[in-house]
Design brief:
238 residues; alpha+beta; Helix Hairpins; Immunoglobulin-like; 2 domains; five-stranded mixed β-sheet; 38% helix; elongated
Length: 238
């Protein structure tokens, strides 16, 4: 009973952490949902491995503990080939399985559509953001009178982000999307978002870039396609 009380916190804490989407946001895009699904696979695998390891440790402590009536140690063994093969092969298979799941998810997340619904040029600069919607003339940028810019995206439609930096290394990070990508000067990068949940998400630079790095934020607002069309028309220059 004393052993159970000692092991209880170790076993309960991971279970409590899993009560809210396995400890991670569910992801506001289809790509984020894929990442969250991978995280759940890793989380469950970790729980299973932990349960097996702690279970074997507890069993060994109880089964092979020194008895009060015994004057000598129990028989000692130096090798057990079958057991050694098992505890070598199983971890290798687990690693191969997790690697395959990771490769599959990264392939889906990194896939760039040949025909995105919306294309946005995202420019990071010291210390702000400029989002330009291609083909519409609409630009949303940081400014002392406007505050952090807001990137508006249509729900359920693929959005291509063309990310680059104007000066130093920054990072495009949206925690609610489970996504981060560095903005490196001279090395633009493209990625797709397919928003799956309407709402407003916080975005920020996650790469320390200077004095006002902490204020280099933005928001992402996901609206219905009809609302997005109306917003884009309202923002278009006269």
């Amino acid at each position: 009973m004393r052993l159970v009380r000692r092991l209880a916190p170790i076993l309960v804490v991971p279970l409590l952490a899993s009560c809210s989407s396995f400890g991670a946001p569910s992801g506001g895009t289809r790509q984020g949902e894929d990442i969250n699904h991978l995280w759940r696979i890793f989380f469950v695998a970790a729980l299973v491995v932990a349960a097996v390891v702690y279970g074997l440790i507890a069993w060994s402590i109880v089964r092979y503990r020194k008895r009060a009536s015994a004057e000598e140690l129990p028989p000692q063994f130096r090798a057990n080939i079958p057991v050694e093969v098992i505890y070598t092969v199983i971890p290798v298979l687990v690693v191969i399985g997790l690697f395959a799941a990771t490769f599959r998810t990264e392939t889906k997340v990194e896939h760039v559509s040949s025909n995105p619904r919306v294309r946005v040029d995202a420019l990071a600069f010291t210390w702000g953001w400029r989002f330009t919607y291609e083909g519409s003339g609409v630009t949303v940028a940081s400014g002392p009178e406007h505050g952090p810019p807001q990137l508006v995206l249509p729900l359920g439609q693929t959005v291509r982000i063309h990310l680059t930096s104007d000066d130093v290394i920054h990072a495009f990070y949206v925690p609610g999307f489970l996504f981060k990508r560095d903005a490196i000067p001279g090395h633009p990068t493209d990625f797709d978002f397919t928003p799956s949940r309407a709402g407003t998400y916080l975005g920020e630079c996650a790469e320390f870039c200077g004095l006002d790095h902490a204020f280099m934020t933005f928001t992402v607002r996901v609206v219905t396609p009809a609302q997005f069309t109306v917003w884009l028309r309202q923002q278009a220059p006269a």
